[in-house]
Amino acid sequence: MQELDLKPSSRIASIGVSEILKITAAANARKRAGNPTIILGAGEPDFDTPDFIKEAAAKAMREGDTKYTAIDGTAELKKAIQEKFKRDNNLEYNLDQITVSSGAKQILFNAFMASLNNGDEVIIPAPYWTSYSDIVTICGGKPQIVQCLEEENFCLSAEKLEAAINSKTRWLLLNSPSNPSGAAYTNEQLKAIGDVLLKYPDIWIISDDIYEHILYDNRKFTNILDVIPELKKRTLLCNGVSKAYAMTGWRLGYGAGPSSLIKAMAVVQSQSTSCPSSISQAAAVAALNGPQDIVKQRCVSFQKRRDLIVDGLNTIPSINCRRPEGAFYVFANCSKLLGKITREKQLLKSDIDFCNYLMRSVDVAVVPGTYFGLAPFFRISYATNDHELNEAIKRIKIACDELV
């Protein structure tokens, strides 16, 4: 029987599967075909989930903790999240101001689906994580992209924020430390942004803090509520266990904000995924309540890898790479390579061309800056071992040297 072609809804007509996932899938296909491909695309720690967290999950299964839970999280997990905010952020939240979902991405989706009407705008500083703009679009909103340049350390300024605000602005989405740039906002930058927002009481804020515990050079984590506490009544903090505790596959995110927003988000979740996995929730309780030393130890490893990749890339004359403050990405400038020609006589017109060239010529998979809203750059995830990072630098240098 011949299948019919589906006409996609207008919500997704202009949206495709994540380009990062496409690049990773293509790289894995090359690897399966026998190519020595180094994959530096996915934002996933190479460390394993700590054993004490796994044991908590196994214990939950042995004890039959395998049923549906409350829609947006068990009381036990919400209490652990409540204590985490007190301990790490000096913030007080009631349990009805906390929500749990199947990943931090779902926190964002629930918030926008619950609050956006058609045409409402969300200000998103670029470079940004690729899913931000697509989630806003699916939820009926309009992404208002504000480009933040390399000379601005990829951070949104108060002046650019105010210039982007209009009568349709509903949200500002901040991510610090950032994916893809690794940039972290200073208290001074956040204070300036917050002062602007105080003038616009109808604009809400999402602070995506998923890389909170991955900061370098003794930098202390800060978000906008540290400097402008008055904004708490219209701020959603988005977080999860995937990055800090190497729990990407457990799919567990959480958020905290005004109870009216949390209640509306629960409506969305109740009609989509319903409750998160009971086993993942038990594991997250252990992660948040357990010893935090392993998080700090792994952050030290990430900092060494950051220095390795930044120093290595900066030895290549045609590449410039800023040293990020956090997360596990670098966002390197490849503008000097555009206009050059490969051995196959291909002209490199864009960062997409350059990244395709790296995959094709030296089997290194990285992600073009275009997909993060700012070109010409490329993102490397250095959440992998030193051997692969060193080898990747050697190969990138060879590929650049062969260009004319």
CATH superfamily of the largest domain: Type I PLP-dependent aspartate aminotransferase-like (Major domain)
Any idea what the CATH architecture of the largest domain is?
A: 3-Layer(aba) Sandwich
CATH-derived topology of the largest domain: Aspartate Aminotransferase, domain 2
Biggest sheet, in brief? 7 strands, mixed
Report the uncertain regions: none
- How many helical elements? 13
Mean pLDDT, all residues: 97
- The topology string of helices and strands comes to HEHHEHEHEHEHEHEEHHHEEHEEEH
Shape: globular
Tell me what portion of residues adopts beta-strand conformation.
5-15%
Any idea what the radius of gyration is? 21 Å
How far apart the termini lie comes to 53 Å
Percent in helix: 25-40%
The CATH class of the largest domain turns out to be Alpha Beta
Order of neighbouring strands in the sheet with most strands: 2-8-7-6-5-3-4
What features would you describe in this structure?
By secondary structure, the protein is α/β, with parallel strands linked by helices. Helix 2 packs across helix 10, helix 4 runs parallel beside helix 5 and helix 6 runs parallel beside helix 7. The protein has 2 domains: 138 residues, Aspartate Aminotransferase, domain 1, CATH 3.90.1150.10; 223 residues, Type I PLP-dependent aspartate aminotransferase-like (Major domain) (Aspartate Aminotransferase, domain 2), CATH 3.40.640.10. It is built from 13 helices and 13 strands. A 7-stranded mixed beta sheet has the order 2-8-7-6-5-3-4, with helices on both faces. Strands 9-10-13-12 form a 4-stranded antiparallel beta sheet. Strands 1-11 form a two-stranded parallel ribbon.
